[in-house]
Amino acid sequence: MRILDLDQRGTPESAVAAHVSLPEAIPSDRAFVRLNMISSVDGGTAVAGMSGGLGNRDDHAVFAALRAQAHGCLVGLGTVIAEEYKEPVPPQLQLYVVSDTNDVTGAEALFASGRATLVVPTSVGPVPDGIPELRAGEGPFVDLQEVVNALAGQVIVAEGGPTLAGLLAAQGLLDEFFVTIAPRVIAGGSARVAHGPEADASLWELRHGFVDDDGFLFLRYCHAL
Predict the structure, then answer these.
(1) Which of 147, 134, 154 is nearest to 28 (CA)?
(2) CB atoms < 10 A from the CB of 207, how many?
């Protein structure tokens, strides 16, 4: 039995850096996909429709540190609109926004920045002028395997929402799963962290974890490369 000591208090920069450090081996034939999500103790992912209501300063620090090591973020259009995504930080980061429609109402400012690519299946009509696009999948929905292949060699942080997380998990496209457990009980009808088709129930390896002063639990699970 291996016991991982999670009884750490405070979150110095070194703890966050260790938590998000990239493995030495990154695949070159596909993207390296890291999912980052937050959940309440009772499994909810949103307060008043937004995940931001669950987090704290240290969750935000992990979020920023993962982005700082990534080439791009993969996120659903619904999450972009609900969470009011702005032009991403850091400057090199590109957002890949997954949608089954070319209607970007509610996210016009983000796409106007030129920092967001709309990811749609080939069945969708022309996207609005000036918006970069990535076509993946011939059916009514985006083929996430094609997306991961198209972004080969890049480190991609998937930021949800739960439907996108569930599809990535079910299709075996996740390399790492970062989850913050917020010490809150919210009840309600909020979706689970990953929602959708059943995924392979094989065990993942817990690589790192820590607890901050507020009692937030930060866990990092990995698949073997």
Answers:
(1) 154
(2) 16
Q: Domain locations in the chain?
A: 29-51+66-154+163-173+183-214
Task: Give the angle 159-162-192 at the CA atoms, nearest 5°.
Answer: 130
Q: How many helices (H) and strands (E) does the chain have?
A: 6, 9
Q: What is the largest CA-CA distance in the chain?
A: 57
Distance CA 114, CA 132 (A): 7
Nearest to 191 by CA among 167, 223, 157, 156: 167
CATH number of 29-51+66-154+163-173+183-214: 3.40.430.10
Whole-prediction pTM: 0.91
From the centroid of its chain, how far is CA 6?
Answer: 23
The number of CA neighbours under 13 Å toward the Cβ of 97 is 30
Reference 28, options 132, 139, 155, 142; nearest CA is 155
Give the pLDDT of residue 99. Answer: 97
Answer for the pair 71, 32: CB distance below 8 angstroms, yes or no. Answer: no
Q: Are 96 and 80 in contact (CB under 8 A)?
A: no
* Cβ neighbours, 10 Å, residue 138: 11
Q: What is the pLDDT of residues 41-68, one digit of tens each?
A: 998 888 877 777 798 999 999 999 999 9
DSSP state of 50: B
